[in-house]
Write a structure and sequence with these properties.
By secondary structure, the protein is an alpha+beta fold. The chain is built from 8 helices and 8 strands, in the order αββββαβαβββααααα. Strands 1, 2, 3, 4, 5, 6, 7 and 8 form an 8-stranded mixed β-sheet that branches. The radius of gyration is 22 Å and the shape is elongated. It starts with a helix and ends in a 10-residue tail after the last helix. The C terminus is likely disordered. It comes from gut metagenome.
Length: 239
């Protein structure tokens, strides 16, 4: 399988470590990037990583992908251990010429500049159709069944992972916003409570001392939160 993929992509050796990236957007303009890793042809879930896009306002897949890959390269260049310290054999982006072009520019002058870079494009039925090369050309996969199946599985996995991360973020935001119904709790305090207790259920179950000990929560607000959850008026239970 990997030997065939190497031949299809024009690589000298079979790719041991493949990293793949996908951007997921939300209606409020926030974006995240999922990174999945395949090692020796199999998912390496311990190597999966997530990026919250920080510098891009609104929905811009190109800029978001560029930011994520630049940050990934910076971690490699900084000599980090773990997955970020491993130089991938190949990078596969969910997207076409535009994504490949901006990421190629982002990786220039980094330690990952020489990693073979490709895009994965889908047809009108959302099935993987072709590989986009770093110079903008396309490699059809229809005649290479094994590579088609493998690349499709990578594209599906990175898409699943990035969407899952985006949904988790939105769920946390929804829970945090429910805390702002408590008098005296604004967005910053709600965020601090979620950071300390992870879920609204845990905030509800916390005793007064624990609430007072949470970073970013003063005693007055802690008392208000405790009173809110221990009176007749409570938030709907978190699913």
């Amino acid at each position: 399988m990997l030997d065939e993929l190497a031949a299809v992509l024009g690589l000298e050796v079979a790719p041991k470590t493949i990293e793949s990236y996908d951007i997921s957007n939300w209606g409020d303009g926030t974006s995240v990037c999922g990174m999945v890793v395949f090692e020796n042809g199999r998912p390496k879930k311990s190597g999966y990583r997530r990026f919250k896009i920080k510098t891009v306002g609104g929905t811009d897949d190109y800029a978001s992908m560029s930011e994520a890959l630049f940050r990934r390269a910076a971690r490699y260049d900084a000599g980090e251990e773990g997955q970020f310290g491993i130089k991938p054999s190949v990078i596969l982006l969910d997207g076409g010429k535009g994504q490949v072009s901006v990421v190629k520019a982002a990786l220039a002058n980094t330690g990952l500049a020489d990693v073979p870079l490709f895009g994965m494009v889908k047809d009108d039925h959302h099935r993987t159709r072709a590989i986009v090369t770093s110079d903008g050309g396309e490699i059809a996969l229809s005649m290479h069944r094994t590579s088609f199946t493998f690349v499709s599985s990578i594209q599906d996995e990175v898409h699943r992972f990035s969407i899952e991360y985006q949904r988790q973020n939105q769920k946390k935001k929804a829970y945090a916003s429910s805390l702002t119904a408590i008098p005296g709790v604004g967005p910053a305090t709600a965020k601090a409570l979620m950071a300390a207790f992870k879920t609204v259920s845990n905030v509800r179950a916390a005793d007064l001392a624990s609430l007072e000990g949470a970073k970013g929560v003063n005693k007055r607000v802690a008392a208000a939160v405790y009173a809110y959850f221990h009176s007749d008026t409570t938030l709907d239970k978190e699913p």
